[in-house]
Predict the 3D structure of the following.
Amino acid sequence: MSPSRPVILAAIAVACVVVSAPLAAQLDYRNLDDHRPVRTEDAYAIERYAFEFMLPAEYGADVSGERTLVLAPEAAYGIVMNGQLGIKLPVALRRDDGAEDEWGLAGPRLFALYNLNTEGPSLPGFALRTDLALPVGGLAGSGARLSVKAMATRGWGLTRLHVNAGASFGAGGADAAVDAEPDWMVTAALDRTLLRHSLLFIGELAVLRMPGSSATEVTASVGTRYQLTPTLVLDGGVGRRLTSDAGPDYELTVGLTHAFGIAGLMPRGGS
């Protein structure tokens, strides 16, 4: 894939944002999406009939010396109440000492998320998510890879705690050059709302095992999400390994999220 392809994908996403009709005021700054800005996500789907476009970028420098830049335009749709479907198109640049730079599609992802219940007096909110990584692109794995994740969210006023646990199956992870899902992971994140409900700070601890590795990674990350407008959110984060033999020396994320609706797809008569 030529370096111009990511620009084309980004242009298409921006065009969709421009022609869309915004929804009523959102609280999207509080939604923790996958890698936006930390690995942990909350247990809630986007609103029914809502669209969400994300334009994230992630840079990582691994302990092995490998460096990667991943651009992953993502679109999601609230297809049912408490449920969403989505697609992610990661395009990556991979650089390793002594080797030529590699550009390529890093395996499109199809995903679905369903919120089983909202938070109540005694139970947190629970959700399940499944992702399918396809073996398409020069930096993708040689086979499909299925990931399953369970999520729980519990709030206390302006503070919320999130716990994720997941596992991946299939042979497409060990030979994927970048952006592979871990064989297993357990993460916990704490977030806090500040500045009149428009700014969110997040801290995360993650334990995981990447495919093809015998070492367990332990990483710590912090991030923030800021609501620029009722439908536009800016996020950013930084993470680093806590173990000496596995994980990133550092990784940086930044992105924009736009939530909107399309009038022609909304049900008539309030149905």
Q: What stands out?
A: The two ends are 44 Å apart (CA to CA).
